[in-house]
Design goal:
This protein is 29% helix and 24% strand. The chain is an alpha+beta fold and 382 residues long. It has an 8-stranded mixed sheet. The longest helix has 20 residues. The chain is globular and about 65 Å long. 42% of the residues are buried.
C-alpha cells in the first residue's frame, strides 16, 4: 500500500506490537507509558502488554490516583508525573570528565547515541517539546547535548480520549488533538473492535507504517475519531483566561495575591520538576578522593530554591512570594518576551503534584479579579 503523508488508516490494537517491533529493529529505544509505583510513568517498552491497559487516573489539586476503567483502553488516562523532558533534557547530565594521566589529564565528553521513539505523546507534550526546542536550539548558542538527543526522534502522538481534572490545554490552544510535530498520531477507538485511527505526519512515519498491517480509514472511522477529540475538549477540568495575561501579570508585581499564595507555598519545587517546559539548571564539579578524576555535571534546578538566585552577597529572591511570582510571571508572561510563546501548555501537572494544591489557573483568575493592585517591572530569567 502506498502511504502518503496526511493519510489516515486503521490499525488493530494487536498490530501496535508490529509497530514497536519495527522501531526496535531500526535501533530505536522505544519509550512509552507503563505502571509503576502507583502512577503512570514513561519507561522502555518491549511489549504492548506493558502499556497501562484498562487504567485511568483521577487528578485534582494536590491529588493523583489510579482507577480501573470499564474497558481495556491503552491510553485511557491524562498525563502522569513525568514528561518526555527527562529523556531530552535529563535531570542529571554529565558534561565531561577529566581523568588524570600521570602529570597531565584528558577531557572526555559524553556523546549520547540512543535514538528515541516516544510512544503516547499527548498534544500538550508535543507543544512542550517544541517550546524546549526554541529554548535550547533557537538562539545564538545551542545546547549540544539536547541537540544530539533530539535528532532522529520518532514521535507517536496520541490524541486524548479523556481529560484530567487539572487539564486546561484547550485554554492554551495546545490540545487535545495533535496538529503537528509527530511522525504518527493515534486516536484510540473502542467500538465493536479495539482499533486506532492513525494519521501519518512525516515521511518516516509513512515508511514505518508500511510494515504494519492496516486498512484505509472510512469517513465513519474519521468521524468517530473526531468525536473522541471533541468530547475530550469539553471535559477540561480547568480553564485559564489568557486574554491579556502577559500585561496583567507584568503590571501586578505588588499584588497582595502573591502574599496569599506564599502563605501556602512550600517552595518544594515540585511544580518545576513535573513541568514539561521548565529548564532551569545548575552546574556542579566533583573530584574523587584520590584526585584522579574530575567530573562536571548539569542538574535540574528550580527558581523556587533559595540558592538559585544567589549572587555575590546573597540571594536576590529571599521570600517565597518573590520566587512564586518569578515562576508564574515568567511562565505566562516573560517567557513570551524571551521565546515568543507562553511557557505553559495546560497539562495541569503543576496543580496535581503541588502538595498543597496551589492552582495556577486560580491564581491568575484571582489577580484578574482585582487588577492594578501594584505596578513594577520584573527582570531576570527562569
Amino acid at each position: 500500500m502506498d502511504i502518503i503523508v496526511g493519510a489516515k488508516l486503521i490499525v488493530a490494537r494487536d498490530e501496535l506490537q508490529s509497530l514497536v517491533d519495527v522501531l526496535t529493529a531500526r535501533a530505536y529505544r522505544v519509550l512509552g507509558p507503563t505502571l509503576r509505583d502507583g502512577a503512570i510513568v514513561y519507561d522502555e517498552i518491549k511489549r504492548i502488554e506493558e502499556l497501562p491497559a484498562g487504567w485511568s487516573d483521577r487528578q485534582a489539586a494536590g491529588s493523583y490516583r489510579l482507577e480501573k476503567r470499564f474497558d481495556a483502553a491503552l491510553f485511557g488516562y491524562a498525563v502522569g508525573p513525568q514528561s518526555w523532558k527527562r529523556f531530552l533534557h535529563p535531570p542529571i547530565e554529565r558534561l565531561w570528565q577529566a581523568p588524570r594521566e600521570g602529570e597531565s589529564f584528558s577531557v572526555e565528553q559524553d556523546v549520547p547515541a540512543t535514538k528515541f521513539a516516544f510512544l503516547g505523546v499527548r498534544a500538550c507534550e508535543l507543544r512542550a517539546i517544541s517550546i524546549q526546542d526554541k529554548v535550547f536550539l533557537g538562539g545564538r548558542y545551542q545546547n549540544t547535548g539536547y541537540q544530539r538527543r533530539r535528532q532522529d526522534n520518532f514521535i507517536i502522538a496520541v490524541n486524548c480520549g479523556e481529560a484530567g481534572g487539572t487539564c486546561f490545554c484547550v485554554s492554551m490552544q495546545c490540545g487535545p488533538k495533535a496538529e503537528s510535530g509527530f511522525d504518527l498520531a493515534l486516536t484510540e477507538l473502542i467500538r465493536e473492535k479495539h482499533e486506532f485511527l492513525v494519521e501519518v505526519g512525516s515521511a518516516d512515519g509513512s515508511d514505518v507504517l508500511r510494515h504494519v498491517r492496516s486498512r484505509v480509514a472510512t469517513p465513519a472511522d474519521t468521524a468517530a475519531a473526531d468525536a473522541v477529540v471533541e468530547r475530550t475538549a469539553h471535559q477540561m477540568g480547568r480553564t485559564l483566561d489568557t486574554n491579556g495575561v502577559k500585561d496583567l501579570l507584568q503590571g501586578n508585581l505588588e499584588h497582595p495575591r502573591w502574599d496569599a499564595v506564599a502563605e501556602r507555598c512550600l517552595s518544594c519545587a515540585n511544580c518545576t520538576m513535573v513541568c514539561p517546559t521548565c529548564f532551569c539548571t545548575t552546574v556542579e564539579d566533583h573530584t574523587d578522593l584520590l584526585n584522579q578524576m574530575a567530573v562536571r555535571e548539569r542538574k535540574w534546578d528550580s527558581c523556587f530554591t533559595l540558592d538559585f538566585s544567589y549572587l555575590h552577597g546573597g540571594s536576590v529572591r529571599k521570600q517565597t512570594r518573590s520566587r512564586y511570582r518569578q515562576w508564574m510571571t515568567h511562565k505566562l508572561a516573560n517567557w513570551i518576551d524571551q521565546f515568543g510563546t507562553s511557557g505553559c501548555v495546560g497539562c495541569g501537572r503543576c496543580i496535581t503534584w503541588c502538595p498543597v494544591g496551589i492552582d495556577i489557573t486560580e491564581e491568575a483568575a484571582a489577580i484578574r479579579s482585582t487588577p492594578n493592585a501594584g505596578k513594577g517591572v520584573q527582570r531576570g530569567g527562569s
